[in-house]
Amino acid sequence: MASRFKYQDDGIITGLDNVRVLEIRPFNQMGTPMQLIRPFGSKTGFEQAVHDLQDALYRDTRLSGPDAAAS
């Protein structure tokens, strides 16, 4: 089973908000890191968008996870 932290396990990056993730497939096939960051306005905007996405995903997981029925 593939780890959801594949790139972290391989020692390539430490988190999804690290812009180096944009140098790895499939992102590097979509454009350069600058081209991919530009829609977010800045590196900080990109990092904030990733944090917001992670927060939303983890919040949904906590709300619908196996322990949700017990609360």
UniProtKB/TrEMBL annotation:
* Top-level lineage group: Bacteria
The protein in question is named: Uncharacterized protein
Q: Name its species.
A: Banduia mediterranea
